[in-house]
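A quick aside before the break. I want you to see a complete sequence-to-structure record at least once, exactly as it would be stored in a machine-readable document. Don't worry about memorizing anything.
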Amino acid sequence: MSARAYSSSSRVLWSGTPSAGGAVGGGTVPESICDAPSHERIAQWREQHIQALQNEVLASRKGYLDARSGIVKHRRHVREDLASGTDVPLRSVLRYLSQEELQDALVYLGLLVAIMVRCIVALGDWSGRGMPPMHGDFEAQRHWLELTWHLPTDEWYLYDLPYWGLDYPPFTAWVSWLCAWVAMWFPALRDGLELDTSRGSEAPAVVLYMRLSVLVLDVLIYLPSVAWFISRRYESRSKRVRQIALLSVWLQPMLILVDHGHFQYNSVMLGLSAMSFALLQSKLPHVHASIRGPAVATAALQRLVLDTLSRHVSLRYLAAAVLFSLSLCFKQMALYYAPAIFAIMFGRCVGLLLSHQWLRGMALFAGLACVTTATFASVFAPWLRSWTDLAQVIHRIFPLARGLFEDKVANVWCALSVLPVGAKWKLQHMFHVSTLAKLSLVTVLFAILPSCVLLFLASIESVYRESIMDDAQAEQVVAKVRRHAGSVASGKSYSRLASSMRDDGGCARSLAASVHDSSRGSDRHSVASGSLLAGSTSTLMRGADGHSRPSASITPTMTAIRPTSHRSSVTPSPAAELFPYTLVSTSLAFFLFGFQTHEKSILLPLLPLTMLMTVKGDRTGAGAVAADWEWAVLTNNVGMFSLWPLLLRDGQGLAWCILLLVWNALIGYRPWEALHTTRATFVAWLSAAAHFGMLGLLLLQGFVACAPRIAWIDGLLLRYPDLFPVLNVLLCMPVFMMVWLWSLKKHLEMTLASGVLAITKTSK
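That is the input. The structure line, written in tokens, reads:
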């Protein structure tokens, strides 16, 4: 609006006579202000037009920001595409869907695809189908539903142990009871869950319900847990990279075939573990948060205090302890992750103590002990009344009498047992089972010690760096308050601003000292009501009586200063960066050297290793991420091959082939592609050799099964009925051993690069 029009409008309003047609300077005077006094009409008219102009400015600014945001996102996607190098089918599909304006629905489409694949696999056979009298794992899970529903808790671990006696921790039994409770709502399922008389039941209704129970638990627990972990670990990467990483895990063929084909509930244990992993992905605070003016600086100070409280109280660690305890109470194989969990949690407690935060260090340690004990006590409650009952539960969970390993599993003990040596030189003949258990325990402890020690040191270093960055952030916030306080709105100096804050909030100390002390996590007075453990959330915006009462110097600026977004940190702590590799190392050590290992236990090291996958050819981290991707795909494929005898026996051979080929095609993995380059890495050569051996064994086994009967081949198979499973073990075990050694090498590289090994020197 021009100055002349504005002056004309003012004269009309002062005279109280509207112009022809009710127009005032090109605008219409509302009737509601014509009857008001002239000065009120002028004020209202000005406010209306100023508000309209402000709305136009905000709208134009929003359009500009949206356009700029779109350009930034496009450039970011281009940079990510260039950084990740190779184009793969999965990325091409996501790019096409993004062009069709389905960007926001990609995760839901991926979820539907993951569910559909699971449903298709569930249409096939299962473990022990039509194979009386014991059948297989499907019958074991069905039997536990009837057992937990019809019997009291004190008989769950005692009833008819030879016929699929319950041998998992009580949380599995409680989940089975819950599934049986839901099943009793449907009359068609009751006959299939009758005690004893329903043994071996394969009625269509029972099979459908059992399959649906696995699918529902998978969708409710495992899929969102993995998505949460990936969103936290890769929050600094583009949305497309996160989507590719998420779909790579959701469509991982091994878990789908074991749970929805062979039939088990591993997704519950893995999902609870993944949730605890996500909670332990801690971030370092960002030092360069943008602050404009004292009002926003005040909000930044409050955020700083709240973030400091949340970080030092470590509620996420307590929640992670509860979730991992539930995972342990569901399946004892979650112990494979326990050393890494203990190392990162205990390292944080020690780090707080070394940082002179004794109270918080002891409080965190006591809190972790309390929530873990309470979780186990609540799950084991019915058996805590009698030591005999508790001992029976523990005996069923850890059965030493079963031997060093079960079936043909690709670990060290099984590989040693099939070597062509005399029977008297076999380990199971040389030593008693209790001696073998001790030998296995000592070997596992030595195997997990290096990675756990390095993670422990990394956790201490993370606490140390948090305290340093807290100081830097607090000093920067205070410096920005001092710079901006005297030049905004009221013109009051920083001393008057701080004085009014102290008068309103009752803070006796200076603002800078308060922020500094609270950010260090000490037990001294802070900006949070003079104490970190009592009072209101923030005295900067509250009075002594606890009610909201902004100071006079802040009030005029609250509406004058444009709010700014808080830029949070995306820098993982040294412990969070190393943590997934420690999970891989410890779980592989248990798989290779542990006692009573199952072939399906390879799922545990595959979970953290697969969640480390991003995109093929990702050059982030100077090629380190691309190498991780190569190792992860190799381990997945070799792990799938190690389960080939089991899944073939279950009638899942066709699903095994299709899922393995489709998954590798989607992520763009070609095992022999790297050999055509002049700079092939060690993992490329290892992968090519392993895949050549796996393909050769598959072709040989297919030839023997389909070729005409040959006398010498029949004689060989009659003498060595487990020939192909043994060859499978001898091929897969060395690859798993190389992956474990690579994980140790990765620990050493990362700790040296991040300076964790120099922690003793830097802490002084």
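Two observations worth writing down. The chain is about 65% helix and 0% strand. Residues 1-36, 287-297, 486-569, 759-764 have pLDDT under 50 and may be disordered. We'll return to this after the break.
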